[in-house]
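Supplementary Methods, section 5.1.

A reviewer requested that the exact input to the structure prediction be made available. We therefore reproduce it here, unchanged from the version used in the analyses.
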Amino acid sequence: MTDMSRPKKRSVLKMSDLAKLAGVSKSTVSRALAGSTLVNKETRDLIESLAREHNYRLNTQARNFRLKESLTIAVLIPTAYKAKWQISDPFFLELLGGIAVALNERGHELLLAKATSTSGDWIEDFVNYRGSDGVILIGQGLQHQRINKLVGDYSPLAVWGGQLPDQKYCTVGSDNLLGGRKATEHLISRGCERIAFVGNTQMPEVGLRFEGYRMALEKAGIAFDQELQVSTGFSSEAGFEATMSLLSSGTDFDGIFATSDVFAMGAIRALHEQGREVPDDVLVVGYDDISLSPYYNPPLTTVRQDRMMGGRLLVDNLFRSIEGGQPNSVLLPTDLVVRKSSERST
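The structure derived from this sequence is encoded token-by-token as follows.
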């Protein structure tokens, strides 16, 4: 048989290959080749052009089967250096609950994966080799620049976190600057003049809360004291350890703004162990308003983050990206919930 008489070899290009070439998800490729108006014209034209160039043909039967299945949505937590995030952290669990509910309402399910890697490229590795249809990142960790780079090549991405001046990706999160300011202004209004800040400012959200803390001090005419800025690790014991360190240093303070409720609870435990009463001796404010906060001893004053709304908006942004649209950054309402940890008895 001559070369001219041989049947033309069929393309071995897979949908995942075509998706990678176009910089979109497999579900976007499927919709585009089916002529769906959910995919914008520019993206649809690009995918159709690449399909023609590589002699790719959509398997309609496979497509129909696939669209009846749940899309695979991965939820990842970007790490900080040597961080040991626990998936049992109440804030993460409650935000995951909001994401799961929103996905379920769309007929899809959540894939929660624990990724362990010594490489700084682990997010990219997951995206490239685990085959998910979309990714939700909970927090930016210390990976902000990597996420900036990633979003240029991988569009089905939604991020919970703080809004940073140079970011190229959209985020959903609370107004951390305002939250930090409200927490600190509340402590000042209750008579505190020596307010400790407990948190790791390398994390984007915490860094914004610290800016709000500094703004509130300056507005009240209170000089910032570096000794009252207490950096933490990332474990569940970090708030306890940071407060014990502050107490052992002999630094005088009458209030604590802890950048998570878990840290605030650890701070209260440390104060109690050292014979300091909350709120009679030290007032404490946390951040998140996790489900346990009203039932702690004493009930915890905190800045509320709406995890259910946050989860829903993350899923909305993700599916907007999957369908070829443009997601939007959202700042959630930031409310201070006052409880007994910051209310001295009269």
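The first strand starts at residue 72 and ends at 76. These observations are discussed further in the main text.
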